[in-house]
C-alpha cells in the first residue's frame, strides 16, 4: 500500500460522503482510507457503512474512538494504523481535486512534507464561493512562521517523518506541527497548485475561542526558539490573532514587539489593513452597519 488517507470526523453526516468520494475519485489508486469516528452522535458511521459497503473493511476502514477525543488524537491513531508509506489527512468537510495525491506523492519522493496551498473555497453544496489570489512568499520559513500554513487537508507526509499532532493545542495543532517540523530540519515543500477545496460553513472552528488560547500556547512554547529572521512574522501573527478575538491589550503589546523586531512589517498593505480592522475593532463597527 503506497498511501493512506486519514479522515477524522465528529458528527459529519452532511459532508463525509463527499469527502470520501473525492478520495475515491483520485487518479492515484494505490491507497486506503481510514475514517476515524470520534464518537459521533449523528448518522456519520451509518452513512459511511451504507454508502461504501462494497469497499468496507478493504480499501475503506472505520476506526471508532471509545469517546470524543478531538481531532489530533484521531489523526495520530490513524497514523498508528496506517499501511501506507505516505500519509494524507482530509477533514470530513473538505474535498480534493482529482490529481491532488498523485501530484503530492511526486514531490514526497524528495521531501518529508508537501503542503498544497489552499485557494478554492466551496459552500455546503460544493459550489465554488471564491478563489483566493493572495500572493504567498517564496520563503518556506516565512510562510510557516507568519501563520500562513496549517490546513491538514492540504498536508501530506512521509510516514517516517510524521512527528504527530500535539493533543494539547486544539485548533492550532495544524500550525504547530509545521513549526516543530521546520525547527527539526524536516524538509517541507510548498505547492501553489490549487488542488484543495476548503468548505465554508457555520460549524468551522476558526472563530472558536480555543483558537486564541492555543495560539497563546504556541507563543509561550516557541517565542524563544524562532529564528531571528522570522521573529517579526511570528509575533505579528500572534498579535493579529489576539486582536481578532478582542484581546487588545496582549495583541497591541506583541504587535509593538513585532514592529521593534522589523519596523517594515507594518508597511505591508495586508498587515496595515488587518491592524486597522482588528486593532481598533473597525470590523465590529462595519458588521453592525451591515458591511462585512
Outline the secondary-structure elements:
Blueprint: E1 3-9, H1 16-24, E2 31-37, H2 44-51, E3 60-64, H3 71-80, E4 86-89, E5 95-96, H4 100-108, E6 113-116, E7 120-122, E8 128-131, H5 140-145, E9 155-158, H6 173-183, E10 188-191, E11 196-199, H7 210-222, H8 231-244, H9 248-261, H10 269-279, H11 282-288
Parallel strand pairs: 1-2, 1-4, 2-3, 6-10, 7-11
Antiparallel strand pairs: 4-9, 5-11, 6-9, 7-8
Helix pairs in contact: 7-8, 8-9
List keywords for this structure.
single chain; 292 residues; Spore Coat Polysaccharide Biosynthesis Protein SpsA, Chain A; 4-stranded mixed beta sheet; disordered C terminus
Structural write-up:
With about 290 residues, this protein is α/β, with parallel strands linked by helices. It has 2 domains: about 5-200, Spore Coat Polysaccharide Biosynthesis Protein SpsA, Chain A (Alpha-Beta Complex), CATH 3.90.550; about 210-290. It has 11 helices and 11 strands. A 7-stranded mixed beta sheet has the order 3-2-1-4-9-6-10, sandwiched between helices. Strand 1, helix 1 (about 15-25) and strand 2 (about 30-35) form a beta-alpha-beta unit. Helix 7 (about 210-220) runs antiparallel to helix 8 and helix 8 runs antiparallel to helix 9 (about 250-260). The chain is globular, with a radius of gyration of 19 Å.
Amino acid at each position: 500500500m503506497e498511501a493512506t488517507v486519514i479522515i477524522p470526523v465528529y458528527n459529519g453526516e452532511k459532508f463525509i460522503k463527499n469527502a470520501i468520494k473525492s478520495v475515491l475519485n483520485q487518479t492515484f489508486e494505490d491507497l486506503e482510507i481510514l475514517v476515524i469516528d470520534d464518537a459521533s452522535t449523528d448518522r456519520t458511521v451509518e452513512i459511511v457503512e451504507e454508502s461504501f459497503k462494497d469497499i468496507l473493511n478493504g480499501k475503506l476502514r472505520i476506526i471508532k474512538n471509545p469517546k470524543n477525543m478531538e481531532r489530533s488524537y484521531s489523526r495520530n491513531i490513524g497514523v498508528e494504523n496506517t499501511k501506507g508509506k505516505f500519509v494524507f489527512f482530509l477533514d470530513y468537510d473538505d474535498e480534493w481535486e482529482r490529481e491532488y495525491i498523485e501530484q503530492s506523492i511526486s514531490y514526497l519522493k524528495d521531501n518529508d512534507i508537501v503542503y498544497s496551498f489552499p485557494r478554492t473555497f466551496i459552500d455546503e453544496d460544493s459550489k465554488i464561493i471564491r478563489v483566493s489570489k493572495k500572493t504567498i512568499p517564496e520563503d518556506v520559513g516565512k510562510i510557516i512562521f507568519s501563520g500562513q500554513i496549517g490546513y491538514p487537508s492540504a498536508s501530506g507526509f512521509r510516514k517516517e517523518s510524521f512527528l504527530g499532532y500535539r493533543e494539547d493545542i486544539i485548533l492550532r495543532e495544524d500550525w504547530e506541527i509545521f513549526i516543530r517540523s521546520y525547527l527539526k530540519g524536516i524538509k517541507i515543500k510548498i505547492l501553489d497548485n490549487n488542488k484543495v477545496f476548503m468548505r465554508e460553513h457555520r460549524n468551522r472552528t476558526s472563530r472558536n475561542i480555543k483558537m486564541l488560547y492555543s495560539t497563546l500556547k504556541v507563543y509561550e512554547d516557541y517565542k524563544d526558539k524562532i529564528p531571528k529572521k522570522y521573529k517579526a512574522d511570528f509575533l505579528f501573527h500572534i498579535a493579529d490573532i489576539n486582536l481578532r478575538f478582542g484581546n487588545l491589550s496582549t495583541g497591541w503589546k506583541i504587535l509593538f514587539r513585532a514592529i521593534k523586531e522589523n519596523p517594515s512589517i507594518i508597511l505591508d498593505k495586508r498587515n496595515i489593513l488587518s491592524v486597522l480592522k482588528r486593532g481598533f475593532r473597525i470590523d465590529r463597527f462595519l458588521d453592525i452597519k451591515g458591511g462585512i
